[in-house]
Amino acid sequence: QVQLVESGGGLVQAGGSLRLSCAASGRTVSILTMAWFRQVLGKAREFVATINWIGDSAYYADSVKGRFTIFRDKAKNTLYLQMNNLKPEDTGVYYCKAGPGDYWGVGTQVTVSS
User: Fold this and answer.
1) What mean pLDDT is reported for the chain?
2) pLDDT band at 56 (very low <50, low <70, confident <90, very high)
3) Which of 4, 42, 64, 103 has its CA 20 to 30 A from that of 80?
4) Phi/psi of residue 67, each to 5°?
5) Average pLDDT estimate for 72-95
6) What is each CA distance from 63 to 4, 67, 70, 75, 92, in whole angstroms?
7) For residue 69, what are the β-bridge partners?
8) Residues 37 and 47: beta-carbon distance below 8 Å
9) Residue 109 CA: distances (Å) to CA of 11, 13, 25, 74
10) What is the Cα–Cα distance from 33 to 56, expressed in whole angstroms?
C-alpha cells in the first residue's frame, strides 16, 4: 500500500504561481510513476503531468506545457508540481497518483482568480 498526501493549494491571482507537493509513504519502493490530475466539480478528472520515478522523464497535458513543471525528490519520497503563469481555467482540485496500482491522494484545492 502507498499513502499520498497533497499540500500547497490555495487562492492565487491569474499570472501567479503555486507549488504543490505530494508526500508518499508506505510501500514507496513499489512506485514506478507518479502523476498529477485535476478535477473541476461536475467534470471528469483530467491528466496534468506525469513523471517516471526512476528515470525522471516527464510528460504534460498540452494545456499546461511550458507553464507547469513536475519533479520529484526521491530521497524525500515527494512529488512536486510547480505551476507558473496560472490561469482561471487551472482552477480545480489537484490529485496526486502513484503507480503501478491505483493510489490516489485526497486532493488539494487550487483557485485562480481573474
Assistant:
1) 96
2) confident
3) 42
4) -115, -35
5) 97
6) 25, 9, 14, 30, 14
7) 82
8) yes
9) 8, 14, 21, 24
10) 9
C-alpha cell at 60: 504534460
Distance of CA 23 to the CA centre of its chain: 11
C-alpha closest to that of 10 among 91, 87, 78, 81: 91
Residues belonging to the chain: 114
- In single-letter form, the type of residue at position 45 comes to R
Whole-number pLDDT of residue 59: 97
Sign of torsion, CA 91 9 58 23? negative
Dump pLDDT digits (tens) for 3-50.
999 999 999 999 999 999 999 999 988 899 999 999 998 999 999 999
CA–CA separation, 70 and 93 (whole Å): 17
- Residue linked to cell 508526500: 23
